[in-house]
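yo, Aldo/keto reductase is done. seq:
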Amino acid sequence: MEFRHLGRSGLKISEISYGNWLTHGSQIEADAARACVHAALDEGITTFDTADVYAGTRAEAVLGDALKGQRREGLEIFTKVFWPTGPGPNDRGLSRKHIFESIHGSLRRLGTDYVDLYQAHRFDYSTPLEETLRAFDDLVRQGKVLYIGVSEWRAEEIARALEIAEQMGFDRIVSSQPQYSMLWRVIEPEVVPLCEKEGIGQIVWSPIAQGVLTGKYQPGQPPPAGSRATDEKGGANFVKRFLNDDLLTRVQQLKPIADEAGLTMAQLAVAWVLQNPNVSSAIVGASRPEQVHDNVKAAGVKLDAELMRRIDEVLGDSVVRDPAETTSPRSRP
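structure:
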């Protein structure tokens, strides 16, 4: 496993991290989840990403149980706050009340005294940004959170948070967690240049585009049984936009490129995002340990400029690049 600094912070994280969105507590049973986490540990992954909302808070509990007995100082545990975790109007968003209640619930479920990174899971238009940043800063000062970050924030939202932190003497954002893959490059025009300038690292999710970049979805064919596209608990909604025959045909044309590089298509997809120097880590998920063992082989892989050019040529205008695709709810969900 290779390690990278999280932005310009002193924290080093594994360049492939393990995430449990849409798996732990929902798609797979606890025993299978534990096996996947242990496979990640065996492969040298030290960075684990979750969120309070995943599987209605169950994902944090499953991860905490799977990591029990591990040396805490040897792990980096990340979680997030924003989406609803209860029925009340304050069980959501980035108010001081919800942030404090959420972190205490997360720490309890994860079985730890602190998290290494606490992330605002979306931008909250209903709460003053100063209130959110002060609450995060207080958690840092209390030792319950070591670093703070954001997920799916636009460049102008990150810039405003940095400005307030500078004015108020708050801890600065060190990370951004966006969706990023060969097919979804909306962070490249605005978010990445700002983050490079400000020392913020990307921890990217869905580098395999919900499994589409593995090549398992064939043009003109129904999705394979048991795949994410057939999971009505949530996965199907996220993968749906990629399931058109033109895009799937282009993805099949990546296979000779992967073969030439000596990689599986999944490994090529993960290695591709890691070529971006602003990416600190790529999050991979798994429902089976063998998926973890496969994906980690992308660590340390260098793709030459010609191969990267050929990937762009194959995918053409199927790539989504519009920064406006990064969105947060205008009112609390």
